[in-house]
Amino acid sequence: MEQNNRRTFLKSTTGTVIGFGVLSGLKSFGDANQVVRIGVAGIRGRGRSHIEAFGAMKDVAVVALCDIDESVLKQRLESHAKYLKQPVKTYADYREMLEDPNIDAVSIATPNHWHSIMGIWACQAGKDAYVEKPCSHNLYEGRKLVEAARKHDRIVQHGTQARSSSAFKEAMQMLRDGTIGEVYYAKGLCYKWRDTIGRTPEEPAAPDGVHYDYWMGPAPKRPFTRNRFHYNWHWQWNYGSGDIGNQGVHEMDIARCGLGVGLPKVAQAAGGHFMFDDDQETPNTLVATFKYPDENKMLVFEVRHWITNDELLLGGKDNVIGDVFLGSKGIMITNGYFGYKVFLGKERTPGPANHSNGDPFTNFIQCVKSRKREDLDAEILEGHLSAGLCHLANAAYRLESTLHFDPEKERCLDNRKADAILQDKDRHYRNPYTVPKKI
């Protein structure tokens, strides 16, 4: 198998990625009632919600489904038939779906190691894209996705859906307006029950109907095992980012937005994989700290996986997910994705509070039609920066080092090992499929 290094695999957004050039020109949506035709890639888990959301819209038609597991494709055609308004094409090969000139946009809910690459290919193919969180598997790919969106003038939305909540927007405006005074500290919490994944043996072949070479794509080729496949890929470094990049990127995005910061100059992290002896590679307990000396601000993030206290005053016994902001006049707590509470003064007197759901899918379609990137609730640059914080935390954890980071160049210039993780320089890519497909 021919080996391609990172710069060959993602040569640049100005050239070709695995033979992909621009397939079609800009779409024109002059009629507000015009139907946007969309293809959904990765439909076993989160992708089901994508089908349901887009399929329920009057001005959207889900016209294609893509998944490397043929049994999943069959299941979705049956279970989600009411969301499919016309005959739907099915694909195992994402590139074949992109060849269809009748598709205006794609929605990507595959494993993390595919997100940026599929998003880049979509931009190059003249398609807009909704890219699930985290939008990247490393900093380099995330930046290349942003560049591709800009070069090809594509609408690219990130799947951090809290930004579509009116309560979220209200809360962020309050922080900017000084409701709790000078905001200097934010803490993101991802306390989510995660049981052991156990151990599973490597198998001589993937199950029938699973295109495992397609699934591995840019990752190193390894034998099939169920703990490196459906969902449990989240806990393997080659495909996922642990819970800080899974559930945690939502809360990371809120914390970063509330502080009004981008990437930091200093990142530290410590943690471990506690309690369980299993196949998980990523930590199930992690504390990360990001320092912004120029802004005199600090962001802390914590992942826990088991019995924990309720730091968000949610009142329940389930997951504790949200953020805490500290200011000179009070605190703000965001709970889940879509609510907030304010407590003011030394007595913590209750202040403003609100809760509202959001609809990122409708926002995406509106922007596809208007071509106004600035109206996206979670434009891809914001997603790249928030995902980048998760990558920094993981790199600091893996190296047990304090990382000194250049946020402008997006590099750890004095730490080659950290830079290699963040840029993936040391990772070698084979052609993404057994037989490369030219377009």
Write a brief caption for the model:
With 439 residues, the protein is α/β, with parallel strands linked by helices. The protein has helices at residues 6-9, 47-55, 70-79, 94-98, 112-124, 139-151, 166-177, 212-216, 242-245, 248-259, 360-370, 380-399, 416-423; strands spanning 3-4, 36-41, 60-66, 89-91, 105-108, 128-131, 156-158, 183-191, 266-272, 285-292, 297-304, 320-327, 330-335, 339-344, 349-355, 403-404, 429-430.
Description of the molecule:
- Residues 1-26 and 428-439 have low confidence and may be disordered.
- This protein is of the alpha/beta class and 439 residues long.
- It contains 13 helices and 17 strands.
- It is globular and about 60 Å long.
- Helix 10 packs across helix 12.
- Helix content is 29%, strand content 21%.
- A hairpin with a 4-residue loop joins strand 14 (339-344) and strand 15 (349-355).
- It has two domains: 3-162 and 360-379 and 419-430, NAD(P)-binding Rossmann-like Domain (Rossmann fold, 3-Layer(aba) Sandwich), CATH 3.40.50; 163-197 and 225-356 and 392-413, Dihydrodipicolinate Reductase, domain 2, CATH 3.30.360.10.
